[in-house]
Amino acid sequence: MPVRLSGFLHSALGNRTSLQLLRPALAPAATASHQLEGTGLPRGERRRLSAQMNKNSSNIMALAPNTSNKRETVCIFGTGDFGRALGQKMIQSGYPVVFGSRSPQTSNLIPKEAEVLSHTEAAQKAAIIIIAIQRQHYDFLTPLAEILRGKVLVDVSNNLKINQYPESNAEYLAQLVPGAKVVKAFNTVSAWALQSGTLDASRQVFVCGDDMEAKQMVMDIVRALGLTPLDQGSLLAAQEIENYPLQLFPMWKFPIFLSLGLTAFFFFYCLIRDVIYSYVYENKDYSFFIAISIPNRICPVVALILLALVYLPGVLAAIIQLYRGTKYSRFPDWLDKWMLCRKQLGLVALAFAFLHVFYTLIIPIRYYVRWRTEDGIISKVSFVPCYVFSSSSFTSTTQHVELHKYM
Length: 407
Ligand SMILES: NC(=O)C1=CN([C@@H]2O[C@H](COP(=O)(O)OP(=O)(O)OC[C@H]3O[C@@H](n4cnc5c(N)ncnc54)[C@H](OP(=O)(O)O)[C@@H]3O)[C@@H](O)[C@H]2O)C=CC1
Ligand SMILES: [Cu+2]
Prior knowledge:
The chain is of the alpha/beta class. It contains 18 helices and eight strands.
């Protein structure tokens, strides 16, 4: 990049200034116009060039981590699923990889470009060591503490339960190897996704650590692998990062509980109105409504309420923005959370609507409905008022009307 920039300046300004200008182009952007001052160029030309130089130098900054050709060797401890997948991906990205294993001779399935050594030998070859081993085996690192002094240790581990241990795995690692710079990263990426390349939804890699330089080195690797590093701050954030993969459906809690609550409410409402009321006042047993008629009444009601709740926060947000006169202020917390789970609310609504369709399809094959339909036809054909004709099965027309409601 500097060479190309120098070429550009060379042609623009001639030999006299090209070398002089090479340096400022790589310095912070603001100094570019300052450095052009002594060149004796007209003011307009100076401004144009300085803008061009600023653009070029910021491009250099943005591309820096990915354009360096020389990649440093990376060491991976553990030749399990994750270690192998990550190693493979790193080799593809141009990193020399050396594995540290308990049994270097017998390890198979390892990418053939990689070297497999003992932990001690492997650690000596690299400044960055990725610990692709479960936390419960970390104590094998204690005897290696001297060799690991000053190295960057990347903790990728996950737990089986939220807050399984009092301290995060990364902090535990930092305690075991006090001389090393521990960085937490990669734990939200799965071995399978790394291998199959289906990382579309999970390109984000959360990175945290106390040593800025170490963190930067790890983030450069993350970028080189085509992933997006997200700096989460100091190693204290590791606990939270380790909990991410264990949070199943984080945005689903509210929609699920809300729909369950609504379902329970409407179920008891229908139960009291249609079954208990008739039983108490008319001594009729309609308990069979519980199986299909009542659910089929609940489903569309809940679906429509949820659908309304999908659209409502957008309207509320618009009102708040109009009221405040700006769209650049933060929404209240409750509205923010509500807006974030609209997709999930909509999907639950869709599920209830499907259930309604399903129940509606079942209804015509029920014996009760067939009997009622036939009964209705007979009463029409006979031209006799139905309460007279079917006096054996119906005591009054009111009951007949009642039943129509439950179809
Ligand atoms: N699998 C995945 O998708 C993901 C895994 N992770 C994390 O990566 C880490 C490794 O996971 P994974 O590869 O699936 O696990 P594996 O069980 O497949 O591999 C673990 C490796 O650790 C090494 N090991 C096992 N026991 C010991 C021991 N007592 N002392 C030293 N080394 C030991 C072994 O390597 P060797 O025989 O070469 O010594 C083994 O291959 C875990 O902490 C996990 O939480 C994180 C994100 C995703
Ligand atoms: Cu309907």
